[in-house]
Design goal:
Blueprint (H helix, E strand, L loop, with lengths): L12 H11 L7 H20 L7 E7 L6 E3 L4 E11 L8 E4 L1 E2 L2 H5 L7 E2 L3 E5 L6 E5 L1 E2 L5 E9 L19 H12 L10 H18 L16
Parallel strand pairs: 5-7, 6-9
Antiparallel strand pairs: 1-10, 2-8, 3-4, 3-10, 7-8
Length: 230
Amino acid sequence: MATSGTTTFALDLGDLIEEAYERNGAELLTGYDYRTARRSLNLLFADWANRGVNLWTLDSGTVSLVASTATYTLPADTVDLLDSVIRINNGVVATQSDQVLSRISNSVYSTIPNKLSTGKPIQMVVTRAGAAPTVTLWPVPDSAATYTLVYWRMRRIQDAGTDAGITNDVPFRFLPPLASGLAYYLSFKIPGAMERSQALKMVYDEDWDRAASEDRERAPFRIVPYVGRV
């Protein structure tokens, strides 16, 4: 028996919302039904950002450091930084080198006696308040070399949008929790659907757990005990 030969299945925004309404025993009838579902979907994406690292939202970036400037603004859609290095002589094959930056808390940064000390940065503090997160380096970059901040970050999931024909910024592996999560959120809004909420939540939690457990790094991980001198 022949197979389809395709692997392109996806749910566009319209299909996703219809699926969520059908799981609640309801229909998508009005423009307001569509608008309130989009609002719930954006709230669902915000919740996913709080649940941990979503690997498909990871990307990298660089910031060219300026001598005597300690604080730099990151892209506004940054959720958090995961890893960062200071790169010397970026792009120069013979001399380019990276050094890992240690991330410290705001409270630890506040205890540094001289925050204006200059040199090669070795520590950073990330502030996630305001419209866009910032990173502050210590020591403050000097002019002794060309420094570049290279970072790996988790970005926000793109908004649901307004066009019913677009697809969401979610890989196919997360389509089950996407549909079940939206259905669960809508169960609080659709008249008569509250009795389904608990069951929909169970399905959502199971779908999320399966997808999240698969969405992980597969590189070998080794823990070596440190045996120091007494």
